[in-house]
Design brief:
The complex is a heterodimer of chains A (about 900) and B (about 110). Chain A is of the alpha+beta class and about 900 residues long. Helix content of chain A is about 50%, strand content about 15%. The chains are: A alpha+beta (about 900), B alpha+beta (about 110).
Amino acid sequence: MSWISRIANTFQPGRTAAGLDEELQFHLDHRIDDLVRGGTPRCEAELLARRQLGNRLALRDSSYDVKSAVWLDSLLRDFRFGLRMLAKHRTATLAAIASLALAIGACTAAFTLIDALIFRPLPLPTPSQLIDLARVMPAFFSADNQPHDSDSFSYPQYELLRDTAAGTPNARADLFAMRLSPGLQSAQFDDAAGASENVRAESISGRGFQILGVQPAFGRLIQPDDDSLANGRPAAVLSYAFWRRRFGASPSAIGRWVTVDRKQFQIVGVAAGPFGGVQPGYLTDLWLPLSAAGDPRELADPDRGIVEVWGRLHPDAKPTPLRAPLQAAITNFLRDRVRINPPRSLHGDQLRQFTDTPLRVRDASTGRDSLFRGQFRRPLLILALICALLLLVACSNIANLMIARASARAAEMALRTSLGASRSRLIQQLLVESVQLAAAAGALGLLFAALVAPSIVVHLGSTEFPAWLDVGAGSRTLAFAIALSLLTVLLFGLVPALRASAVSPGDALKTGGTQNSGRIGSLRWMLAAQVGFSVAVLFLSGLLLLSFRKLIAVDLGFAREDVVLFDLAPRNPESHRPDSGTKLLEDVRHLPAVQAASLSQQRPMGGAMVWIMTPIIRLPGRANETVRPVEVPVSQGFFSAMQIRWIAGRDFLPEEIAGNSPSVIVNQAFVDKFYPNQDAIGQTFDKLTDDPDPVLQRIVGVAANVRYNNLRENQGPSIYTPLRDAAGATLNIRTASKAASLIPWLRKEVETADPILTVRGSILLASQIDNTMIGERLLALLAGFFSVVALLLAGVGLYGVVNYAAVRRTREIGIRIALGARRATVVRLIVSGAAMSVIAGIALGMAAGLGLARYLASQLFGVHPADFLSLAAPLACMLIAALAGVLPPALRAASADPLIALRYE
Amino acid sequence: MPKQDALQGSLPLLVLKILDRRGPLHGYGITAQIEAVSDLLRVEEGSLYPALHRLEESDWIRAQWITTENNRRARVYKLTPAGRKQLIDEERRWTSIAAAIGRVLAQA
């Protein structure tokens, strides 16, 4: 008989027992017959036969044990018994399941988000073979003077690397190029009657899809012969998610034409299912062939970094031996280029550093580190930390209630022990109850996560940069939820089970299960743990909430209300006029409701999405110093329109905007750094540009510091240069009021004012600023919610334990009151029992919170963990919750009528 | 009559041997057979059935419900090939132990 039949027998105990009975009855009957045949009277024979066979029940049991899986049988019994016990305490069970489900759900949702954003490999075959290339650029190349990875290569560089990698013995890899898009582009589909919509379009080499291992869901993908500089085809491939959203998954999308960047492409197919590009967080809507989408001159330029180089290692190849030949190839290439066309901005050793920059062959299995990933990695990890603490709060809460209930069940345990149940058997029974609780909570939590995770993804994006993460319930999420549920069983079930099963049957039965006089005893440290975890959640959440409050109220140096931003683009490049700005501004300023208007090259508060210009300047007398201020080209009237405070000097004059003027306006930080205690007006410096000769600049004005691109800090030394061309710039319009409702009308007016311009995008300045705080806002929102939950759980947990202790001491309290104890003494008696736990918990929680606070440092703004408010706010909240949990049972106990109390039980 | 303990270890051996010699038998048949062969040994009926079920569990014997001539259902046990192998092993072990004990008794 196999284990399968044993398990089958366990599930049908009736049938198994009946078979055993029949067999024994057969034996008895034969024995009686034989005895009767031998001359024994029948009634005597029956007795004799029975005596010889022995106790039939015991026989049946021992055979049943052989025939069935004993462990499974006891588990089934415990399972049924556990369900009965949980159903008996329905309210407590539901409360426990709800709090645990919330915590497990929050943790699972956080895991799913982090997994989808950071850890999950791209949905491609053998993602571990995927690589991408980058060069480690020297520090002097970046504005913040830090070495950084650059993954931009020129197309000729890519071709060289590709051929080198294909020809390297023992370390072969297939390389291809992509142009990944940082933002959205406007596109017109031929079914939309000329209306444009924003899509994320990326271009890819002809072999790209083949090397990545992407399959078509419909139609075909981009092929090598589509991507040919000589006679390529303008093919376009849709991503599956975009196909469903834009075309309702209709096959009629194939064959349609789409215009991107003034070039026409025909849709030839849809990429299969889960693949939505190589930048987790963003969905690529459209793929185009690299050659057809690019400008041929740009592609032929050996110095212009426009593509990213990706690839797949051959099955037996390793990335390390591949590096050396690629390094040699790129270094030789750069040395040749520097000889032919020496870059003016580099001097001395910088040239060598530039040509010999180390090449890195990076593991690309989890996709590219997008801006999105960089922006949300830390907030999501912090979210996970708070969720984990919340889980500990919920677990310690349930553990408390279970310990309290377990001592009420001491009599039951004692009875079972005296009937022969082993300790392991009791532990098993109690753990089965915990597993049932955790399983129910885990299932609900998974459901909760499946509902919450997608809506968090939506909140991570904005209309301009929609977020896309695959957070569907995959096997990784499921495995995590199951593992987490099992972990919670250990966290909240093990200690109560070990405690409850360690009963001395004699004592417990004698006192009817009320042997301890109601002391909280070892519940104390569990209570302290719960308070501690809650305080840690409150403290960390408090830091996030306080810094978000500071962040939204920060003084930007300009007025954010009632300003509309319009991104302008030339309708077509032929009709481009370099001085379009002046006339446009004149027209717009005359519109009713418009108070002021100006142009700036970059959108204010563009965050990481805007290109920040950091030209090299040479100050007189500091020739060897590389100084890179931020350059912001603006029109005349920019400072008054944005309401930026003037320090000295004047604005640009109209003729300075019109002609090539050397005038610049600098900010206070620039003056503080380079002209301390001097008059900056009239000072001059050289600016290096693409032209062979440096441009002389003369300071005409000084403006106050502003937070132009980043809420968290003032922009460093900056220069404002005159801007004439409206195409490609941002138009800032300050209205008298209600800017939001004026956007459509203003848009029309702007486009009619200058027909060669078109409005590419529009947004309120206030919304633009809000969009830079998405991570902070989300964290503050969730942290606020979690701290309420933690506070609630702490209060409920305290109430449960104190109430339990007070009820246990009803008789003792009755005697005290009868003997003349005052009510206040009784209240003090009850409260002091819990007070030590609360105080210890607060101390532990604060210590843990302060220890964990450094993981939050990058998200904090204007708040320090050791600030008075940071420390006092969670403390006060916790004390109020503790009083709310402890006082009601204490007051109830103190107001007990001694006569009734003494009759208790 | 030997005490039950002495027989306990050897009961499976006897059951296997009888099933080997006599072919398929029900529990009562096995008892009757042991008693018929030996006046000395009496099967403790209480331990026979658990022993049978354990042997069945070890796959040395196989059970089957049959209908007897007087129209009753009886559970009949049959030796399996694995049981036959086990029987040979057990028998050899028993004989060698008995011989060893015999030698000690004769020479001590």
